[in-house]
Fold this protein.
Amino acid sequence: MRPGPPNGRHRGGSHRPTSPRRYAVRRIAALINDIAAGVVAGIGADAFADLLRQLREAAVEHFKNENTILWELRAGTYAGLRDRPRTPPVVKAMAEAAFDEHMAEHAAMLTQMDALRELPREALADTLKTWFIDHAIKQDAHLKAIFQAL
């Protein structure tokens, strides 16, 4: 899967905007796919290391953005809440409950990613897919629930 274009538009001429968060997720998925393709193609060590570096940078940026959103939700300063001075307390409670766990998960995932780099290439691609999907399903689902409650 390739990431959406940086201009915020979906491919195929659709005019629905792509959020920066969604674009970051697509970028991570695309890099993992590129790593898997690189394993199959037998790309050189430098090119492979560059893909891993790009993946880590994309993950750091994604986690940084999510952490910022969680901080803003917790503080009541998130842009989506500005038009709603009486945000339901349940939304703030949901953000509060997810906050510490989600941020700790991000730190743990980066540590895991660094450890995964030591795996043989053949095992790395599948392990990265599992690593990413696990986070998306277990952790990012909490954020989705918060945003749907807004």
